[in-house]
Write a structure and sequence with these properties.
The complex is a heterodimer.
Chain A (H helix, E strand, L loop, with lengths): L1 E14 L4 E4 L1 H9 L11 H13 L3 E8 L4 E10 L3 E11 L20 E4 L5 E4 L16 H8 L4 H11 L4 E7 L6 E9 L2 E9 L18 H25 L8 H31 L8 E4 H11 L1 H6 L3 E3 L8 E4 L1 H18 L5 E9 L2 E7 L31 H11 L3 E6 L5 E8 L2
Helix pairs in contact in A: 5-6, 6-10, 7-9, 9-10
Chain B lengths: L13 H24 L9 H23 L10 H7 L5 H18 L18 H18 L11 H19 L4 H13 L6 H11 L4 H6 L1 H17 L3 H8 L5 H9 L4 H12 L5 H10 L5 H21 L4
Helix pairs in contact in B: 2-4, 2-6, 4-11, 5-8, 6-7, 8-10, 12-13, 12-15
The chains are: A alpha+beta, B mainly alpha.
Chain lengths: 443, 323
């Protein structure tokens, strides 16, 4: 901000009808630039509202007020002292804001060049659909959550996920290809934020991508767990965790010690179930035949350092040090960033969970045989050679229980690695710890 | 709703009264059951939150009542029953205010107070307004720490006005007559109240008058304290102070991350802040979402998104319905 506190405050008076009855020159000019005149209604709405509020409440107010001048955006500090029939204003600071930040989308509103449009309001509900984009929609679909609607109209997959993410974040969408479930037609979709909402334009690709014999069921429609059940399960689980913690921490008053322990057990068990819900959602996704990972250009040293940062507190709880590659060591890879991060987070999480306290975990990176390699090495007791393939099987826990694991993490990680054109395997280090190695393509 | 069942047999209108109470109760039952079967919040309230909100609400009404009556009812606010039946105590702006206070308590407890400079750095500032605001902030924080008795001093002018006159009306209903002395007491309270003495307003004043860039305050809550941190976010994002408190205290760290991204806070500082306020509440999954999303989030996009939050909240608080 620039500008400063005023040596002599700018004064003015507003009557109970909102008329500016007297004012110093600066306030008069501000009012005139907003289209007002002295002895007429104050034309700066933010100041008028505050003045009338002070008169109504008969209370002194002292607030920052933002107003738009013709050329500048200002933040004024105004103190208001009311009497029953008027408010005395005193502007004690007049600051010019450096830039106009809240202007909605910085880009110009996208012109409507297509007939086929879906428009959503600021909270994402469908408010308009025209042309081919309205095909198959019922009147009751208007006002529904737009993302849920799109997920039911178009086939699931990375393109739809990307579109829905962009809508959630109000980010522009460019040339996203979607296939409509009901007739198999393919559309190129573009869109972005517009005044008061989000708009998608659909351009039909003339030939269907594959011959359609009959309307087929969406692949996503089979995604029973991740899309439908997981959100339903998370809510009661969240409630169980929260309430069990409330009881366990004795916030409502002291209870018998063993009862408090039971409550903590309940909270831990529910937390385990909640993690399992997450894992099952991922499991369902990676087992879909059309599951594909994006091909981003990523750098494995960066992934390693991010994971170490995220798990630093957890490692510190066990006095475990996580060692990452030096900053100047770069190993590029082609893989989906989020999924790679998920795999390495899972591996380091496991290493922390199963390593003795006070040991070290090493994340190393290298380029080997035209492949990008990232490995996680711990100082635990290692993996028995007979179990090295077994641990990548679904729900395989190697006889362990009660440690919060679901037996799905490594299975999902390997499926993700393979979906990205890579591989995940394990071997033992010479000093006995386990080394999990993720290989990814580097071009 | 509690149904009084102690109508005496001598009361000639007993049938009418019981009939009216139960007739009203079928409507109340309808809304109560609907909210139990169809909760609208993704993360339902915990017993701890309900208990904290309830305690703060009782304390607030009790303090204000004591100020107006010049005596404290030893057990429970005298006007509680009338106010709760009138529906006023369930108005969204009041509950939102109380939830923000609950959030403030939790978030404040996350900051090690012995390391906080808070406003003390401005106490000797050459700008008298800044020094006064710092003094006010410290006094308000101290008053808050000292405990109960004057919780109404933290209300906004609008809420204090509403609650004061509701309590006056409830006292008059209870007494069955006009209460000129209490009305005078209410007028005196309102005319002497200055919202600039509240911690959040003093903090906002410091942010306005200070030449320190807001991102210094936004990036270092552990040094500047909760109020200055939130006030700086409020100045940068044009969001209400209490709205920000509630967003930071939300059950996911994502809203806070979006706010920090909108302020252009570096990822390192953002992560540090999130860990400060949320600690072990962050799951690896949530951490992964932050890690993969934060750097790609443009400040302008985040700011646009936050603009929607502000308008949705304004709509909710004024109408009481989710937009």
């Amino acid at each position: 901000m620039s500008g400063a506190q005023l040596i002599n405050p700018i004064s003015g008076e507003v009557d109970a009808d909102g008329r500016l009855v007297s004012a110093d020159d600066a306030l008069v000019r501000l009012n005139e630039r907003a289209g007002g005149r002295k002895n007429e209604l104050l034309a700066v709405p933010a100041i008028k509202t505050l003045a009338l509020l002070a008169i109504k409440l008969q209370m002194k107010l002292s607030r920052a007020v933002r107003v738009a001048d013709d050329a500048e955006h200002l933040e004024l500090w105004i103190e208001i002292d009311p009497t029953p029939d008027k408010a005395r204003l005193s502007i004690i600071s007049w600051r010019v804001l450096p830039e106009v930040r809240r202007t909605g989308s910085t880009s110009a509103p996208a012109p409507i060049v297509h007939e086929n449009v879906m428009k959503f309001d600021p909270v994402g509900r469908l408010v308009r659909a025209t042309g081919d984009a309205s095909h198959g929609l019922m009147p009751s679909d208007f006002g529904r959550d737009g993302r849920a609607l799109l997920a039911s109209v178009f086939e699931g997959g990375a393109a739809l996920d990307s579109l829905l993410s962009s809508m959630s974040a109000s980010i522009a969408v460019t040339s996203c290809s979607l296939t409509r479930v009901s007739d198999g037609l393919v559309f190129h979709v573009n869109g972005g934020s517009v005044a008061n909402g989000f708009e998608l334009q659909f351009e039909r690709v003339e030939e269907p991508s594959t011959p359609i014999a009959a309307p087929k069921e969406s692949v996503a429609a089979g995604a029973l767990f991740g899309k439908n059940l997981a959100p339903v399960l998370r809510q009661p689980l969240g409630r169980i965790i929260a309430n069990a913690e409330t009881i366990g921490s004795e916030l409502q008053g002291p209870i018998r010690e063993n009862y408090a322990l039971y409550a903590r057990d309940i909270a831990n068990a529910a937390r385990h179930l909640s993690a399992l819900v997450d894992d099952l959602g991922d499991l369902e996704a990676v087992e879909r035949p059309d599951f594909k990972a994006a091909r981003d250009n990523i750098e494995l040293g960066d992934v390693a350092r991010r994971v170490a940062g995220l798990l630093a507190l957890k490692a510190a709880d066990h006095r475990i040090s996580v060692h990452t590659p030096p900053e100047d060591m770069l190993v590029p890879a082609v893989a989906e960033f989020r999924r790679t991060l998920q795999i390495i987070l899972n591996l380091v999480n496991n290493a922390i969970r199963y390593s003795p306290d006070g040991t070290n975990i090493f994340i190393d990176i290298a380029t080997v045989d035209a492949e990008a390699v990232i490995s996680v090495r711990d100082q635990g007791k290692g993996i028995d050679p007979a179990d090295r393939e077994k641990i990548f099987e679904k729900f395989e826990r190697l006889g362990r229980s009660g440690d919060g694991g679901s037996g799905l993490g490594l299975y999902i990680s390997r499926r993700l690695a393979r979906a990205m054109g890579g591989e995940l395997h394990v071997e033992n280090a010479e000093d006995g710890g386990a080394i999990f190695t993720l290989r990814l393509p580097n071009s | 709703m509690e149904i009084p069942l102690d109508h005496g047999v001598d009361d000639i209108n007993v049938l009418m009264k019981v009939g009216a109470e139960h007739a009203h109760d079928i409507d109340a039952l309808c809304t109560d059951i609907a909210s139990v079967i169809f909760p609208t919040a993704v993360n339902p309230p915990t017993e701890a939150t309900i208990s904290a909100v309830s305690a703060k609400l009782i304390q607030l009404v009790s303090d204000l009542e004591a100020r107006l009556l010049s005596k404290r009812n030893p057990h429970f606010p005298l006007t509680w029953d009338i106010l709760s039946k009138s529906g006023f105590l369930r108005e969204p702006d009041l509950i939102d205010f109380i939830l923000a206070r609950v959030a403030e308590d939790r978030l404040g407890a996350c900051i090690a107070q012995d390391k906080v400079k808070s406003a003390s750095a401005y106490l000797d500032h050459q700008n008298g307004i800044l020094a006064d605001a710092a003094q006010t902030l410290l006094a308000a924080e101290s008053l808050h720490r000292s405990g109960a008795g004057n919780t109404y001093l933290g209300l906004t002018s609008e809420l204090l006005y509403k609650l004061t006159w509701q309590i006056v009306a409830a006292i008059e209903i209870g007494e069955g007559a006009r209460q000129p002395a209490i009305i005078a007491s209410a007028k005196s309270l309102l005319s002497s109240f200055c919202e600039a003495d509240r911690a959040q307003d003093a903090a906002r004043k410091i942010v306005h008058f200070s030449d320190d860039p807001t991102h210094t305050l936004v990036g270092n809550p552990e040094i500047y304290g909760l109020h200055l941190h939130v006030a700086a976010l409020s100045a940068d994002l044009e969001l209400d102070h209490d709205h920000i408190l509630r967003l930071i205290d939300a059950s996911s760290s994502a809203p806070y991350a979006v706010m920090l991204a909108a302020c252009g806070v570096s990822k390192t500082h953002a992560l540090k802040n999130i860990f400060l306020f949320r600690g072990d509440l962050i799951t690896p999954r949530e951490a992964g979402i932050f890690e993969s999303g934060y750097s790609n989030l443009q400040a302008d996009e985040a700011l646009t998104q936050i603009g929607y939050w502000a308008s949705a909240r304004a709509q909710f608080l004024s109408g009481g319905k989710l937009p």
